[in-house]
Amino acid sequence: MRHLVILLFLGIVIFFAGNNVLPLTNPDEVFYAGTAKEMAVQGTWSTPYIFDQPQFEKPILTYDLIRAGYLMFGQTPFAARFFPALFAWMGMLAVYFLGRLVYADERKAFMGAFVLMTSALYIGLAKTVFTDMIFSVFILLSLAAFYAGYHDRTRKSASLVLFHIFAALAVLTKGPLGYAIPLAIVLIFLFIKGEQKFIWSKAFLTGFLLMLLIAVPWYALMVRLYHNAFTHEFFYNDHWRRLLEAEHRSNDRWYFYPASMFGCMFPWIFLAAAAFGQAAKAVVVKKADAFQMFLVIWIMVVLVVFQTAHSKLVSYIFPLFPAMALLSGAYLTERLNRLKRAGWLETATVSLCLLVPLIMLVAAKKYPLYLPGAAHAGAIIGVEVLFLLAVGVLFFQKKIKGGIFLAGLQVPLVLFLALTTSSNISPYISSQTAVEHLLKNRQVDGKIMASKFLIRGVKYFSGKDPVLVNFSDSNFFSPHPVPDLNTQEKLSSFLKSQPVSYGILNDHTWQALEAFCLKNGFHAELIEKVGNVYIVKVTTVLRLTNISGNTFSC
Questions:
Q1: Cβ 130 vs Cβ 141: under 8 Å
Q2: Are residues 265 and 370 in the same domain?
Q3: What domain count does the chain have?
Q4: Is 531 left (phi over 0), alpha (psi -120 to 50) or beta?
Q5: 104 contact partners, CB below 8 Å, separation of at least 6
Q6: How many CA atoms lie within 13 A of 167 on its CB side?
Q7: Do 280 and 296 meet the contact criterion of CB atoms below 8 Å apart?
Q8: pTM score of the predicted model
């Protein structure tokens, strides 16, 4: 009970505290939150909208949850981030209760949940508006339901039904992989165990029919309302095309996911690698228990499914992190039970944490604009050093468990300290400050020019129609229904269409626009630079010719 209370309290603090401090960030948070906002304007709970037009990048459930958050808390960053945080809290508890069900040692369940909730990527996705946390927790709940029935056959019928219900909700969150991934994990596991008959039951069929009843109607409605516009965008562009084509080319490397799988478990990188290595070896030599095998298959299926796609993002493999945490928690607990002093793994984990204040020291010197002052930066680094000294003292006193617990709180502490610099960070990660400055100081009547990275935020925070100023010839991976000024003729025509044009641009776009205006009879003026965003004004230069033939600009 003590462990559960600790998890409940830490979960609330880590996942919910500070979620209203930073404005919604570019380019993704404002995309998901903006879609929910536009759905409210359109009065629909079924069709996602962006830039006042239907969009089909993701299914409906995440948008509906964000909109529900707005109804409960108002249109605030906390409201938009409420359900990702809530699902992170639920996912941590699901890992704990699954561990309690399987492990004889309750401390293994606690450590698994603690490792998960203090891992860098888990905290990051818990506090940002993406589909990945919600999607991954539904997959976790689906697989936990299955294994509960596998472990205790008296629960088999209910577990198979719940397996399908949670998978159906995953399908409504991110697509068909929400059912394909957990089903593949279960089938491979049962095949290796030689227990394929486990799923041949009325309960499995009932669950499958319920899954169809929950997941299919929304897809059917979109096909009926939007026909090829939906099927082409959702199934081809956002699924099949991502398999064949890299959206982020620098990520399309064979080692990207293996490195991310361990690196994003910080500060548990070495622990996760050691735990997975031991479990994988046990499976290969056929000495793994059923749950170890299940977790290894869980990790490998997710890894293989997304490794085959050319479009790679760290968040895509997020569904494997609960399995990594369970393996890591059990492995660490076994080590702590038999060690009287810190071993290589515990020492390496704490040593890794020492890098944080060093990195912050370098960042404070190299990127001073992100911090409110040298004194404040020094205070943050000082707190970090004192924190790690406390960990070192516990290790020296051979209180290894206490030292490891304290070291695990490193990421939440860094996040808390980072939020104290929010007024300096905000202009670099969000369009809000720039948009508010423009609307407060200028009368903006027409459309606002925006760079690709900033355009979603301009729409979300201004409520006005933006146009894309595009000098790079690269468009969005998924089409955005906004005017694309990607030629000189289009840009010139737009600037002539309204007496004054305002823009919120990045450095590259502003420099290119300034050069274009100089050559083509427009006057470009920098109003203000906010963070790394340029607020600009463009007017037409009138050319008058006198009797002598001299030309004057005014």
A1: no
A2: no
A3: 3
A4: left
A5: none
A6: 29
A7: yes
A8: 0.94
Strand-pairing partners, residue 450, are: 468, 504
Residue 83: how many CB atoms within 10 A of its CB? 21
Residues 491-522 have pLDDT tens digits of: 999 999 989 999 999 999 999 999 999 999 89
Report pLDDT for 539.
93
Tabulate helix, strand, coil % of the chain (nearest 5): 70, 10, 25
Contacts of residue 139, Cβ cutoff 8 Å, sequence gap at least 6: 166, 167, 170, 178, 181, 182, 319
Say how far apart CA 100 and CA 108 lie, in whole Å.
8
Q: Which residue has the tokens 């228990």?
A: 289
Query: In three state form, how does the secondary structure of 12-32 look?
Result: HHHHHCCCCCCCCCCCCHHHH
Q: Print the domain residue range for 509.
A: 431-544
Eight-state DSSP code of residue 239: I
- The whole-angstrom separation of Cα 24 and Cα 32 is 10
Cα angle value 246/252/258 (rounded, 5°): 135
Residue 396 covered by a domain: yes
Asked if residues 123 and 318 have their Cβ atoms less than 8 Å apart, the reply is no
Q: Report DSSP letters for 114-173, one per residue.
A: HHHHTSHHHHHHHTS--SHHHHHHHHHHHHHHHHHHHHSGGGHHHHHHHHHHHHHHHHHH
Query: Cα separations (Å) of 392 from 80, 154, 348?
Result: 39, 48, 12
Q: Which residues are CB-neighbours of 397 under 8 A, at least 6 positions away?
A: none
Tell whether 394 and 268 lie within a shared domain.
Answer: no
Nearest-Å Rg of the Cα atoms of the chain is 26
Alpha-carbon span 502 to 447, nearest angstrom: 8
Contact 315, 125 (CB under 8 A): yes
C-alpha 28, offset from chain centre: 8
Whether 228 and 305 map to the same domain: the answer is yes
Please give the full DSSP string across 293-344, using - where no structure is assigned.
Answer: HHHHHHHHHHHHHHHTSS---GGGGGGGHHHHHHHHHHHHHHHHHH-SS--H
Statement: residue 35 has pLDDT above 50? yes
What tens digit of pLDDT does each residue of 428-487 get? 899 999 999 999 999 998 899 999 999 999 999 999 999 999 887 677 878 788 999 989
Tokens standing for residue 218: 């929304």
Q: How far apart are CA 536 and CA 469, in angstroms?
A: 12
In angstroms, the CA 66 to CA 72 distance is 10
Residues 146 and 293 in one domain: yes
Cα separation, 410 vs 416, whole angstroms: 10
> Are 260 and 299 within 8 A, CB to CB?
no
